[in-house]
């Protein structure tokens, strides 16, 4: 295939250069030039079309919104309930899903299981593997007990060949494992580079929209936890799913970060077993570590991201630090931790200035909702004082800079779930206190951080 011309475009100012340069000739920024296929032909740039826009204006009819018929998207359930839950019901025709996560967390496993289920449901599937050989995927399928599967496998990394195969075989769903190993021969950049990832994803997205074939892209995650490759990848696709969890523990969460066809922040819960990923339909208690006796520095909270409440243990360790004490958080926002320590000092008189403070959400979950604040604070004070919170204790609520405790959304549901699991004492924001008592649960409603501290001291 004849190579098309490529140019290098600056991600900062949009300036172009015919060859790669370390420094953008237009704005002077460093390392911002990214290779792109130059669009051929005259008038490639609409803005510079000399005859004005008259010729372009009639390309698509303009209609009042009321005249356009709303269409429900056609979905096919993958047959894996927890995956369908995050997808918003199933695989959407022509939909593009990006699924990211740490290496070894189970992306390939889940997708192979899903493709097999879809294939058995009568949907032709194509699994393109760029990271592993066909033999390796076959080995995995044997482990999953699906060695007789009719899923079509293609070990290929060149985009043009992948697109040709898709065209020839006409599957309903294609998995690209992974987008970082795929490369287009139109670009000279190395596979995995920003230019290649962007170009390949754009081609595959266009193919999906043009043909109605659903595409699932596997993406790698950088050390910082973001999807490797340009942010533009997240904008291009319809759905972004993230695998979370500690590879050392059995449980995995799949979270929808973006979904044009469903709710975001919905989570699917899986357990990695000897025979692949199994859905966990009742996950509320899996992120609690089982202490035989209550220990200092531990406080349980209920998170509610998506539709199901999850009980998660927050752990803190406060220990005398050096001249510049460290603040470290795993699964929780680091900036928020600094803020909470300042609020603790100012409003509750608890000082940790010369102490190292570590906090951790058990089991590798990431908690982004501020409802974790109160539990983080109580676990820190518990560790600082060396005094455990009582058995069956939980707390949730957002804490503001003025020391006020703000309500969490759907507090009743959270409390009911906790009561169901045998929790007996809760410290919650006043606005979350239930009108009718919940059996077995003593509730302390608080408006301020100081109050919460007093309640805990008196327990
Ligand atoms: P994998 O799907 O290859 O991860 P990714 O594609 O995200 O890199 O997951 C591989 C891990 O899962 C590996 O450490 C082995 C483990 N595993 C099981 O525990 N049980 C199984 O049935 C399979 C297939 C893998
Ligand atoms: Mg893999």
What is the tally of helical segments?
A: 11
Oligomeric state as shown: single chain
Query: What structural class results from the helix and strand content?
Result: alpha/beta
CATH architectural category of the largest domain: 3-Layer(aba) Sandwich
Which SSEs are present, and which pair or pack?
Elements lengths: L5 E5 L5 E2 L15 E5 L16 H4 L17 E2 L4 H7 L3 E2 L3 E5 L6 H14 L4 E5 L4 H10 L8 E4 L3 H11 L3 E5 L16 H18 L2 E6 L12 H5 L2 E6 L6 E9 L7 E7 L2 E4 L18 E6 L6 E11 L6 E4 L3 H15 L6 E7 L11 H13 L7 E3 L2 E2 L5 E2 L4 H10 L4 E5 L12 E5 L2 H9 L2
Parallel strand pairs: 6-10, 6-11, 7-8, 7-9, 9-10, 17-18, 19-22, 22-23
Antiparallel strand pairs: 1-2, 1-3, 4-5, 11-12, 12-13, 13-14, 15-16, 16-18, 20-21
This protein binds thymidine-5'-diphosphate (TYD) and magnesium ion.
Labels describing this entry:
single chain, 459 residues, alpha/beta, Rossmann fold, Ribosomal Protein S5, domain 2, 3 domains, 9-stranded mixed sheet, 11 helices, binds thymidine-5'-diphosphate, binds magnesium ion
Task: Kindly summarize this structure in a few lines.
With 459 residues, this protein is α/β, with parallel strands linked by helices.
């Amino acid at each position: 295939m004849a190579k098309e011309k490529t140019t290098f475009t600056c991600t900062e100012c949009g300036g172009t250069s015919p060859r790669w340069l370390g420094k953008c000739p237009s704005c002077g920024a460093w390392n911002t030039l990214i290779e792109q296929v130059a669009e051929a032909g005259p008038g490639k740039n609409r803005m510079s079309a000399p005859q004005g826009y008259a010729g372009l204006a009639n390309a698509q009819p303009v209609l009042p919104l009321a005249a356009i018929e709303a269409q429900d998207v056609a979905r096919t359930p993958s047959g894996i309930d927890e995956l369908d839950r995050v997808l918003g019901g199933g695989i959407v025709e022509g939909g593009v899903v990006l699924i990211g996560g740490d290496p070894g967390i189970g992306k390939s496993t889940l997708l192979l299981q899903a493709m097999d289920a879809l294939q058995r449901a009568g949907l032709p599937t194509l699994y393109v593997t760029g990271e592993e050989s066909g033999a390796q995927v076959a080995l995995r399928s044997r482990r999953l007990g699906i060695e007789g599967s009719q899923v079509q496998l293609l070990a290929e990394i060149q985009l043009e060949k992948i697109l040709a195969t898709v065209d020839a075989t006409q599957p309903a769903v294609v998995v690209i494992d992974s987008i970082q190993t795929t490369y287009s021969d139109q670009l000279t950049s190395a596979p995995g580079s920003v230019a290649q990832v962007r170009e390949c994803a754009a081609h595959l997205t266009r193919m999906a929209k043009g043909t109605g074939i659903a595409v699932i892209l596997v993406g790698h995650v950088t050390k910082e936890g973001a999807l490797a490759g340009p942010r533009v990848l997240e904008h291009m696709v319809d759905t972004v799913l993230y695998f979370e969890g500690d590879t050392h523990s059995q449980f995995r969460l799949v979270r929808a970060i973006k979904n044009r066809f469903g709710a975001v922040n919905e989570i699917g819960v899986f357990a990695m077993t000897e025979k692949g990923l199994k859905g966990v339909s009742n996950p509320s208690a899996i992120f609690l570590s089982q202490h035989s006796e209550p220990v200092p520095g531990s406080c349980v909270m209920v998170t509610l991201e998506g539709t199901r409440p999850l009980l998660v243990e927050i752990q803190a360790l406060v220990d005398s630090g050096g001249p510049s004490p460290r603040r470290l958080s795993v699964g929780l926002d680091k900036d928020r931790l600094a803020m909470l320590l300042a609020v603790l000092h100012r409003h509750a008189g608890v000082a940790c200035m010369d102490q190292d403070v570590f906090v951790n959400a058990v089991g590798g979950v990431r908690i982004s909702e501020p409802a974790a604040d109160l539990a983080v604070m109580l676990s820190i004070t518990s560790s600082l004082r060396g005094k455990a919170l009582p058995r069956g204790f939980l707390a949730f609520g957002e804490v503001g800079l003025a020391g006020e405790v703000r309500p969490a959304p759907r507090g009743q549901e959270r409390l009911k779930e906790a009561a169901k699991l045998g929790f007996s004492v809760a410290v919650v924001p006043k606005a979350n206190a239930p009108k009718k008592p919940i059996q077995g649960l003593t509730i302390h409603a608080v408006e301020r951080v100081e109050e919460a501290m007093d309640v805990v001291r008196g327990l």
